[in-house]
Amino acid sequence: MAAIQGAGPFSPSPLAKSRFARIVLETNATRIGLHGVDFRSSFLKPIKAMANDCGAAVSGKNLSQMAKTVGKATNIVWHKCSVDKCDRQQLLEQKGCVIWMTGLSGSGKSTLACALSRGLHARGKLTYILDGDNVRHGLNSDLGFKAEDRAENIRRIGEVAKLFADAGIICIASLISPYRKDRDACRALLPERDFIEVFLDVPLEVCEARDPKGLYKLARSGKIKGFTGIDDPYEPPIVLRQKAGNCFPPSAMAETVISYLEEKGYLQA
Ligand SMILES: Nc1ncnc2c1ncn2[C@@H]1O[C@H](COP(=O)(O)OS(=O)(=O)O)[C@@H](OP(=O)(O)O)[C@H]1O
Ligand SMILES: Nc1ncnc2c1ncn2[C@@H]1O[C@H](COP(=O)(O)OP(=O)(O)O)[C@@H](O)[C@H]1O
Fold it and tell me: What is the per-residue burial (b if ≥16 Cβ within 10 Å, else e) of 65-93?
């Protein structure tokens, strides 16, 4: 069962009134495998209702702001097409958005991203996964793991995710994205309702016990420097939450996210 922030004995705080959606999926599991895992999940309830602002979703800015100078580019003007996000969403019968998975290496981001993609695909919904590992094979192959490289990695994936959302696609970004300010910058790229943050709140010792790629072992022995959770920080989202002690495998967590999307109207045009 998923708990909704503010629905129980705790009174809603200013934090609970965050203006964007966030889902926390956590586990205290101490062993590998999909059975016997103690998953608990909760919601920070988004305050703002969905609005039909497809036009604004192109960039979150109006045309006059976009003309002339953007970053280092001068004398550029936004070119608007008569086929817009609304049209694409109607064609696809869904709403384009970004589901941003964040958490330690080994927390289950890629597994959940695939389960979610599979679940939505089965419902006839178009998704695309931007997995940090995969994007680093191409677009971001020039980047390492120094703080500035991670920031650039996340910024680029945030921009690509924004384009996917504008295409009407449910884009699932799956990256460690360890620094809060980088995640916040990605959130700010999109209209607030289009960015759904999913935090896989899995303890370091669980991730380290899983260690499917052997990277924690290498990091502990000093063979990898600057590894998230070992000698480089992970800054968790700031959330207040109520906990429910139920056990969820990835497929159940995917259903939790899908239920959220259904409830909020993302799975309709
Ligand atoms: N130093 C260091 N720190 C963290 N992770 C490392 C590092 N070196 C390599 N890897 C592997 O790279 C994957 C993380 O890439 P991301 O693009 O998601 O990282 S980040 O968001 O830019 O921090 C991560 O994949 P996941 O395990 O899927 O998270 C690791 O396999
Ligand atoms: N919900 C889960 N319960 C138990 N093990 C899981 C769960 N999700 C993923 N795993 C396992 O944890 C390991 C890391 O999962 P992965 O999805 O690759 O994590 P990440 O992408 O965050 O690095 C894999 O061996 C995977 O099978």
Answer: ebeeeeeeeeeeeeeeeeeebbebbeebe
Is 111 a pocket residue for ligand 1 (Cβ < 6 Å)?
no
| 187 CB neighbour count, 10 Å cutoff | 19
Q: What does the block give as tokens for 71?
A: 């970053």
Q: Does the annotation mark 177 as catalytic?
A: yes
127-149, pLDDT tens digit by residue? 999 999 999 999 999 999 999 99
Ligand 1 atom nearest to 140, measured from its CA: 17
User: Which of the residues 141, 177, 221, 259 is marked catalytic?
Assistant: 177
pLDDT digits (tens, 9 = 90+) for 168-178: 999 999 999 99
Which of 111, 114, 136, 198 should be mutated for ligand 2, with most atoms under 8 A from CB? 111
Distances 184 to 120, 151, 188, 195, 226 between C-alpha atoms, Å? 26, 11, 6, 10, 22
Ligand 2 binding residues, C-beta < 6 A: 29, 32-34, 37, 103, 105-111, 210, 212, 249-250
The arithmetic mean of pLDDT across residues 123-130, rounded, is 98
66 pLDDT above the threshold of 80: no
Cβ contacts of residue 110 below 8 Å, gap of 6+?
A: 131, 133, 174
Between CA 205 and CA 245 the distance in angstroms is 19
Which residues contact residue 43 at a Cβ distance below 8 angstroms, ignoring those fewer than 6 apart? 2, 3, 4, 5, 21, 22, 23, 24, 260
Q: Is the CB of 153 under 6 A from ligand 1?
A: yes
Percent of the chain with pLDDT over 70: 74
- The Å distance, Cα 204 to ligand 1 centre, comes to 14
User: CA dihedral in degrees (225, 231, 237, 240; nearest 10)?
Assistant: 160
